[in-house]
Amino acid sequence: MPHKPFKAVIPAAGLGTRFLPATKAMPKEMLPVVDKPAIQYVVEEATHAGIDDILIIIGRNKNNLSNHFDSVPELEESLARKGDHDKLAKVQHSSDLADIHFVRQGEPKGLGHAVFRAKAHVGDSPFAVLLGDDLIDERDPLLETMLELHDRTGAAVVALMEVDPESIHLYGAAAIEETGDEGTVKITGLVEKPNAADAPSNYAVIGRYVFAPSVFDILERTQPGKGGEIQLTDALQELAADPDGPGVYGVVFRGRRYDTGDKLDYIKAIVQLAADRDDLGPVLRPWFKEFAATL
């Protein structure tokens, strides 16, 4: 029988303290990456993978997020009167992307808790979790591969990327077994932000996950872990350790990923994406060379 359509969950309740004071009154997910807020790239990624039902988990003072995906009749009428159809199309595009819903996380108890808040909306559908700090280049599909793997196996699926071993303490690290399928591994264990000496590998979990709705039963009983928060990694560890379950698989991503959760990497993301654009790249790339020569 065909599976139920996938839904998507985007946790966006964090305080964004690394970007203060810019995020004092504006959610970090609304910081612009060239000319779109970071979260729009994430929503577009979900829709490109065929998901049109999206739940965004928000915290206090995050109304800008819902406003961005709402229609703005006064602005649209003004642009139409001016005949500025290009800008009008861009404004309407963000409103027409998908069926977008919002729910508050309430207490900031960690990523696992934020995902659990999606239980009522997700119901009995399989779903993807997309973190807004990781932008995946649309030219390098990832989510589509993860959804297909979940369809085929029924397993939880996470995105992995090989990182410098000295950086593994910034991520969840996966212990893996080869499957024989290139780019796909079986995950036998996970450790949240381990020291380099204790990491099971340099395969880091990046911000894309696919779950069956049964994960909510695990999250409901998951106790606070590292940092006193309910960790999604702990729920994945339980799934990986279950000898009777479908387990956890990893899709190894070797494409273009932009980390917007760090100030330096955020700047790099803007530079990389702008340089690749047809409207900005031809002028920007020569300027980069001139600027670099002055350093």
Describe this structure in words.
By secondary structure, the protein is α/β, with parallel strands linked by helices. It has 2 domains: 255 residues, Spore Coat Polysaccharide Biosynthesis Protein SpsA, Chain A; 33 residues, no CATH class. It starts with 6 loop residues before the first strand and ends with a helix. The model has no long low-confidence stretch (mean pLDDT 90). Its EC number is 2.7.7.9. One of its GO terms (molecular function) is UTP:glucose-1-phosphate uridylyltransferase activity. Belongs to the UDPGP type 2 family.
How do the strands and helices of this protein lay out in sequence?
Layout: E1 7-12, E2 32-33, E3 36-37, H1 38-48, E4 53-58, H2 63-68, H3 73-82, H4 85-96, E5 99-104, H5 111-116, H6 119-122, E6 127-130, E7 134-136, H7 143-153, E8 156-162, E9 172-178, E10 184-192, E11 203-211, H8 215-221, H9 232-241, E12 248-252, E13 257-259, H10 263-276, H11 281-293
Parallel strand pairs: 1-4, 1-6, 4-5, 8-12
Antiparallel strand pairs: 2-3, 6-11, 7-13, 8-11, 9-10, 9-11, 10-12
Helix pairs in contact: 3-4
